Amino acid sequence: MKAPRIAQNFRGRRAVIFTTEGQSLGILEATLRRLGLEPDTRPVPLRQDFELPENLTPDSDLVIIDGDLNLPQAWPDSYNTSILHAPCPTVGLVGTEAPSRLKAMLQLGAASFLQKPIHSGAVYSALYLGVNAFEHVDGLKVSLDDMGERRRKRIYVIKAVAEQMRQRGLNEDAAYDLLRKASMRARVSVEDYCETLILANPDSDLDRGKTKKRCQAR
């Protein structure tokens, strides 16, 4: 897996802040501006329910949520995110260190935390960890999705190899090598190449039963 790029500069990002009014908020806003971020503060009174925004993007936004608030249980359905994952980098503000409040922030995908009262020197570290942890998890998700897609397409590779063996009289290794080199010339993965090949020539494809027998006889 390719190592993810480490983000160190957060200039130009919008920081959407959900917390109560107070001195710590002023310190946080001033520090974010010094770091080149644009604070978008949305004060929420304690014990008041609120909704998370639906217009966040991972490359230009980050969210800072106060664990002392009545946090929503999940992000809006429009993001289609799984539990423990947010649509953009998320930092939790920790006042009361109760397990239930920490759990609520984790379930919203908070990957780093900033202790209250806020000290300006701790803000950059929280942003650094939050943004890069999000990028790392997002990269893993993309890799898993890619692996799943490749696994789904392996049947086309099996069929294409079996067809080359039948047509050209090659052994399995030689047939696969032929397809691999052809996919490299086409600048696509061998799975994509074999899928295109089989779907473009359905009449010449071996039926699934024969394909499985050849693979089992390997």
From TrEMBL:
GO MF annotations in UniProt: RNA binding
ANTAR domain residues: 137-198
Name of protein: ANTAR domain-containing protein
Species assigned in the record: Thioclava pacifica DSM 10166
